[in-house]
Amino acid sequence: MEILNATDAKREFGDVLLKAQKEPIAINKNGKTVAVVMSAVDYQMLTNQQESLLKLELQKGMDDLQAGRVVDGNTVIERLKNRVINAPL
């Protein structure tokens, strides 16, 4: 992935858009990546993947509910408290 600083990306924005059609372009400001420019096709694919994963996890949760593999919130909180209390220092 190509990395440009924000000033160069601003100055070369047209080129950034063209390059982003081939691969994502990272934009750095003060030495840290603050944005990534990618093609609309890549963005749509990423969005579709995220949506598919979310649907899969929701279905797993629904399957657990139907199978009775659930724990109430109070039990979860108590288990977490016990893990914190009993955690090695």
TrEMBL record:
It comes from the Bacteria. InterPro entries: Antitoxin_Phd/YefM, YefM-like_sf. Pfam families: PhdYeFM_antitox. Belongs to the phD/YefM antitoxin family. Antitoxin component of a type II toxin-antitoxin (TA) system. NCBIfam families: phd_fam. This is Antitoxin.
